[in-house]
Each structure stands twice: as structure tokens, then as C-alpha cells.
Amino acid sequence: MVEIKSGQRAEDGGDEALERAVQHALTAQVVRRRLDQVHEVRARLGRGEGVATGVKDVAEAFVRGQVAHLVLDPAGAADLELDPDRVEGLALGETGAHGPMPADRVLLAAAVLTDAEVTVLPASVLGGAPVAALLRWQQ
Questions:
Q1: Pairing between β-strand 101-102 and β-strand 81-82 as defined by DSSP bridges
Q2: How many domains are there within the chain?
Q3: Would residue 86 count as lying in a domain?
Q4: pTM for this entry
Q5: What count of Cα atoms within 13 Å lies in the side-chain half-sphere of residue 101?
Q6: φ and ψ at 112, to 5 degrees?
């Protein structure tokens, strides 16, 4: 929760001032959350634990139920393919889709089905990988 201090309309500029204050508060929250994710990804990559990187490793982490947070670079992950039929245990529900698909779509579907959070970050933050996962536990 964020409290926005606002006085009487005549004192603070009215609705426009309130809209600017709300926009500023929302932007600050988004930036803070994104920076927190960047720091968490970098810390886990640095320790080499609690993180999976790359399409195959992230898909396998979804199968094991380890993924708490999917972090992806959509452009980089969309350029790669993932065939859910070739990852034993990777269930995407009753989609009717078979064969190779863009990796970003497959992994996003897995995140939705497993209630994992999703953050979009550039591959440069992910150690050059197009996708990473913050794990609930280390195997």
C-alpha cells in the first residue's frame, strides 16, 4: 500500500495533481520491484544455486515443481523452440497443441499452470540466457 498525501483541491492542483501523484507512486513501485528481481537473479547466478537458466533446464524445473518465478527475455525466448512432448512430465493442459513451439509461449503456459510469478528482463541480466527461473528449492 502506498499513501499519497493530498490536500484540498485549491491547495494541490486538483485532479491533475492527484493523477500525477498516483502515476509517480505506481512507477516507483514497478521500478522497485524490477530492481529487486534484478538483484535476486544476479545474486543467485553469482552463488550458482537456487536458479535454473536456459530453456531445457527451466522446463525440467517446471516438471519438478521447483519454479517460483519465471524470468524471461521475450525476444530471446521467442527465437527458440521447445517441444513439450519431448519434456517428460511437462503438462500444458488440454491445449491440443503438439510439436515444437516458441519457448516463451510454452514456458509462460507452464508458469500460469504452476502459479509461478513472471518477470520480463533482458538476457544481459540473465547471464546471457533468454530465460531463467528462481527456484523454490535446490535439487
A1: antiparallel
A2: 1
A3: yes
A4: 0.81
A5: 17
A6: -65, -45
